[in-house]
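Good morning,

Both structures are done.
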Amino acid sequence: MPPAGSPDLDPLPPPAGAAFERLGWTFLAEFFEIARRRRPSDVEALAELGSAYTRLGRYREGLEVDRTLAALVPTNPTVHYNLACSLALCGQAEAALDALERATALGYTDHAHLETDLDLESLRSHARFRELLERLKAL
């Protein structure tokens, strides 16, 4: 129930809501592209840009950003996890599994997220993925 005195607004129907969400991600991508041109080593802006690209289905551009981030902060486990996601979305399974291995070696331990992350769906049938998941669960 809306607070007293506020208009009673219905949520947007699904098609309009999805279009509105896409518009928001497009705006964010454009905003962070400008930020990247101004400060190409801004890790936070790059991370947001990579996320926006992925949400928009611009996987190859997201992969480029994630590779840049991995070069800028090579010891960050989340950066390598996100790189694995981008690689998997681009159909590069072996490289994605290598990046996941690197992420876990650097300290990534969230097996529950790894197990359900839709970006990694293409890796679930690989023995290396299942072995990595089991190792994380055992921690």
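Second structure follows.
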Amino acid sequence: MAAGGGIVVNALILALWGFFYAPCYLTAAAYLTDAAPGAVAFANTLAISYGNLGITVGTTVSGWVIAQYGIAAAPWAGAAFGLAALGAMGLRSWLSARRNANPVCAAP
């Protein structure tokens, strides 16, 4: 009874999490393979490796935050990771736009 409301509440929370997580995973996979169109298999391998790294770092940092500040601070740690992810996406978009605005010309 993690949510305190019984199995129905827990099942609803799990379904809600899955509803929001599934599109994020698919979007991230498309975003990553778009970044490396000539090396899709390599990009997918990196996605798995970085996914595992993200789980490790997220669990470690969130555990530290909970130990230092209590369970009420855990959502703030998640928000910080979310902002970091948005920042990384913004940086990639900016670099991509900059690269497309100044294409490198091949020698004849």
